[in-house]
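Extended Data, record SIR2 family protein
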Amino acid sequence: MAEKLDELNALAFSIYENRGVYALLIGSGVSRAAQIPTGWEIILDLTKRIAALEQAGEQEDWAEWYQGRFGKEPNYSDLLDALSHSQDERRAILHRYIEPTKEDLEEGRKLPTKAHRATARLVRDGFIRVIITTNFDRLLENALRDEGVEPTVIKSDDDLKGAVPLIHSRCYVIKIHGDYLDTRIRNTEAELTGYSEPMNALLDRILDEHGLIVCGWSAGWDHALRAVITRAANRRYPMFWASRGEPSVTALDLINQRAGKVIPISDADSFFEKIQRKVEIQAALQRPNPASMDLLVASAKKYLSKPEFRIQLHDLVMDEVRRLKQHMADPKLGTDGSWSPEEFKSRVALYESRSEPLIRLFAVLGRWGDGSELGLVMEILQGFGARRVLGGLTAWIYLRQYPAVLLLYAYGIGALRAGRLKAVFQWLTTKIQTENRGTQLPAVQELFLWAWDGGDNDYWNHLYDSKKKTPLSDHLHEIFARYMDDHFISKDEFTRGFERFEVLGSLAHTSTYTTIEDLKQELSSSGPGARGYVWAPLGRTGWHNQIKDVLFSELSEVNLRDQLAKAGFGKGSLEFLDLAFQSLKKGMARMSW
């Protein structure tokens, strides 16, 4: 029997496949992480303040005290009227509950939460268009505007009269309890028993035409909203109910009535972040049809087999280069925009999915090429690797070179798999344009591991739940195991090939970065502040001791050392090679330690 798809994954899949079909219903649980009080909590606090003015003393139930004292339930508007005499005074009272103070800002309170921001990204990308909320704060609206989305906000019948039609709005936010700056906010049980006819009509339409995702709402107080959900006859799309712990009896009645699905969550922040991430990954990984990818690879192999096909090969490769350049013009990969781990993950996935056809071509060219293709691939690497002066966020500027990093590995691993050491060295030392006009550096100094400005561990550790010593190298190992699975007999053989390439990359860096005199000086240095080796970017081999020992044993063989020197490694000097290997071993020992 096939294993059932996890409900969270099922929801993410459904959101992706049914863009704009789901409406969100979010309650106070979504704003709780921002330390925003619920409407009832504000009512109770205002009641306590009135009780303090009347010197009523401590009470077990403040609502009951108010009922006994004034003969009615505490009401938001009545309480504000009692405690203030003007609109400005009422706004000042409400600001204390909602608007962040300087201390709040310093400590990150009363600001959009991770849940709000993940929701805003789903709206920005067109997956969610309608949000019903019982919250009266403006955290959601603020998060949406931070993502460049101006929502149509409905908080009363007055707003409905002049609002943009639902179908024409990029985002519709219905604040069914009102807004905190409008004293008509709905809080008491009596106020929540029914909606106006126009509001009911709008909600009925939404529930009829949309699926529903519920989070942070208990269903306990909102009689009118429960009635809207219950009477919706259409079941075209399902209901998903995110719940911390077991849903209440009232909530279960609604879920069962709608044949809804319960998703256990730890909190709203993690729920919405996971959903947004899973949806975004699906969007990013719109990988080409496997059949078309196989055809692309087969065509490249065919064109490589005979010199007369060199024009067809050139055109095949350049078609993919043009496609990748068009993809990189996507505003989603622009250099503007704020930093977040989720945005970094999203951009990495986008670059990888859109570079994959060219990556696979480069792997084939490296593996089965004869050297005649080297000029073409170098030119392409220079084009994608050139550091251009751009405005925007530094992290996004650096990440623009990521396709070049992927191409560097693809051709290099392929050429090494074929034993083409000279081509590997020439490839690793391809001149790349730096930020300084007229200055060029070898690819191993501009695009390889830590030598690449975008290869900082602080960036790439966001892809993992724990900190790694070589997160970029680990990630590249993971994805190239998929990209190049048909080039190696087994996963173990691939890993050895991958790490052999990275060791040669480190060796090429040392060969181009330093002199034999500096090597000798560093290796013989001792005392405080002495490293004892020349710095070089190192991959996962630095801590992968078992493979490291095997690799260095292979590299110490006289025949291979001669081949490496003839290929250009170690400046063609066996003495330099010996010193460079010593330096790399010491650097890796330090990393492992």
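Summary. The longest helix spans residues 341-368.
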